[in-house]
RNA sequence: CGGAGCGUGGCGCAGCCCGGUAGCGCACCACAAUGGGGUUGUGGGGGUCGCAAGUUCAAAUCUUGUCGCUCCGACCA
């Protein structure tokens, strides 16, 4: 399409790769599958992080940091947990190199470790080894800790933001004295995730429970938020796990109750990652590039000055109070004085997804006006310069609202209620979500996955399976579920 | 690890079949003009054609080997 971007409706994945690159978000690092997050992409992450960090602090959580390295033996303590992560761990076996005449540098065999070290794929095990020391009494509970960190999962096939060997995330790890409290925590966090996705990222999500085959390795129950991307595939955007007493038992973490009994503590863990940035791109992007929701956009308003060399000084004077006022109103604003043509800049900033653009040139100075253009709509608006702040604020709010509305309409239009397996197959092959009955049998689930590549994204909270039959077997449905092909 | 394809300035590619001076677009540097939807002009820098061996007067091009990458399957926030 324009700017030589690949046609989005034809080759969604080529389009995605180009956008990530050309909008200046990220690139692959030298080690295969690793990601470099460039400044513009990182600012996006910082904005998301700041919003969620405030949410969890407001709900009584605190931040801490645990080590990157985990003794290999820790991973084996929880049976399902090893099972889930063993195949994708980076392992440290030696502690130094030495120079070699032929090969330059080699691993020094003398430095081999007694016990190998795992680079964390997730931190449950280190954290619970510490909780054992910290928790003795019900008075020590709950423990509500979050950490912002990187984790490593040695993925075979990677894609920027969606799946890389190393990624940034937050992981919360809480300990409670009752199962009810742990369950409540799990659900409360899921609600924060929903709020983050919908109210800030403008991504509508389904909330619900994962099936046993899709749940986190070591969890009793996994809840998730699931979103539909622009190509109608599903993306898991966040998960919240009720770990029951699994990790407490594995790491022998007990506490004394009020009536002096000893009990294992109840645990949760939950996480969202830089994958959310991928979700934003895949949800809101269009033929011209990225579209960023104003509430997380690193730049909310870009100003394009239009002036000949000799007019530059006048223009700077004209703009100075306007920009100052915008900054004072906490609007993230940037003046682009680079030496490109205006048309080039328009396209450039549209690609980068900036929600609002202001054009200012000699014409506007004469009329004491500015021109505003929305990223999500055609047309331009000429307004008096004294009305800039009001208009900018109003338009940003409006764009935020429009993005979520558009995304929700798209998702709803492509979510189908289905009874027959033939309909199921035809919809899945064209792309989209299917709501249908499921007999609760994991073999049924596996069969459908094999047939169609679709998986159960979640058992939605608002399910109503009473009248339903299983889409594959025709047996009485145990649950109403949402099926889709996923990233 | 199975199936397909690709390695030529920073990026994207042509040249290879039929051996003979390494080319194009973009990007980059300099100067000038231009500036309200990817703006021109002029000049300039940068590549032992993935690597190795072979055939030949001569190899980006032919032969053999080797290494690397991408895409599709099994794994996955």
Structure description:
This protein has 487 residues and is an alpha+beta fold. It has helices at residues 12-22, 39-58, 72-75, 79-85, 124-134, 179-200, 246-250, 275-284, 312-328, 342-351, 362-367, 388-413, 421-430, 442-452, and strands at residues 26-28, 35-37, 62-63, 69-71, 91-94, 97-100, 104-107, 112-119, 143-152, 166-176, 205-209, 221-228, 234-244, 254-256, 262-264, 266-273, 301-305, 333-335, 356-360, 369-374, 380-384, 415-417, 433-438, 455-460, 479-484. It has an eleven-stranded mixed sheet with strand order 3-9-10-16-13-12-11-24-25-23-22, sandwiched between helices. A five-stranded mixed sheet has the order 18-17-19-20-21, with helices on both faces. Helix 2 packs across helix 6. The relative contact order is 0.11. The mean pLDDT is 94. The protein binds one RNA strand of 77 nucleotides through residues 2-4, 32, 84, 87-88, 122, 151, 153, 155-157, 162-163, 167, 169, 216, 236-239, 271-275, 304, 306-309, 340-348, 359, 361-364, 371, 380, 487.
């Amino acid at each position: 399409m324009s700017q030589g971007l690949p046609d989005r409706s034809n080759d969604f994945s080529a389009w995605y790769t180009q956008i990530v690159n050309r909008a200046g978000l990220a690139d692959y690092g030298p080690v295969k599958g690793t990601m470099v997050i460039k400044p513009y992409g990182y600012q996006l992450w910082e904005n998301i992080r700041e919003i969620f960090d405030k949410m969890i602090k407001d709900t009584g959580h605190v931040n801490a940091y645990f080590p990157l390295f985990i003794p290999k033996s820790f991973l084996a303590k929880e049976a399902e947990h090893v099972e889930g992560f063993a195949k994708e761990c980076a392992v440290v076996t030696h502690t130094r190199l030495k120079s070699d005449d032929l090969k330059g540098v080699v691993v020094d065999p003398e430095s081999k470790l007694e016990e190998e070290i795992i680079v964390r794929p997730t931190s449950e095990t280190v954290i619970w080894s510490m909780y054992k020391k910290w928790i003795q009494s019900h008075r020590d509970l709950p423990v509500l800790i979050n950490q912002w960190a990187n984790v490593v999962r040695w993925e075979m096939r990677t894609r920027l933001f969606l799946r890389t060997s190393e990624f940034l995330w937050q992981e919360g790890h809480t300990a409670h004295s009752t199962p009810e409290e742990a369950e409540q925590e799990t659900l409360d966090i899921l609600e924060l995730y929903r709020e983050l996705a919908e109210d800030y990222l403008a991504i509508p999500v389904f909330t619900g429970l994962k099936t046993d085959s899709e749940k986190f390795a070591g969890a009793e129950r996994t809840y998730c938020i699931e979103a539909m991307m622009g190509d109608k595939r599903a993306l898991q955007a966040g998960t919240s796990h009720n770990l029951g007493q699994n990790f407490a038992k594995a790491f022998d973490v007990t506490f004394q109750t009020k009536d002096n009994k000893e009990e294992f503590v109840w645990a949760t863990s939950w996480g969202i990652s830089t994958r959310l940035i991928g979700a934003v791109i895949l949800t809101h992007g269009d033929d011209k590039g990225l579209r960023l929701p104003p509430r997380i956009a690193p730049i909310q308003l870009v100003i394009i000055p239009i002036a000949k060399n000799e007019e530059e000084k006048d223009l700077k004077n004209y703009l100075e109070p306007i920009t100052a006022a915008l900054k004072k109103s906490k609007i993230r604003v940037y003046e682009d004085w680079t030496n490109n043509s205006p048309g080039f800049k328009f396209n450039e900033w549209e690609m980068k997804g900036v929600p609002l653009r202001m054009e200012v040139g000699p014409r506007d100075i004469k009329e004491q006006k500015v021109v505003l253009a929305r990223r999500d709509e055609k047309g331009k608006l000429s307004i008096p310069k004294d009305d800039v702040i009001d208009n900018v604020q109003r338009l940003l709010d409006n764009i935020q609202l429009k993005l979520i509305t558009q995304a929700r309409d798209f998702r709803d239009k492509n979510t189908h209620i289905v009874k027959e397996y033939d309909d199921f197959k035809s919809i899945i092959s064209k792309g989209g979500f299917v709501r249908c009955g499921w007999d609760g049998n994991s073999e049924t689930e596996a069969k459908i996955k094999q047939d169609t590549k679709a998986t159960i994204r979640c058992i939605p909270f608002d399910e109503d399976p009473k009248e339903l039959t299983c889409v594959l077997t025709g047996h009485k449905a145990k649950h109403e579920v949402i099926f889709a092909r996923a990233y």
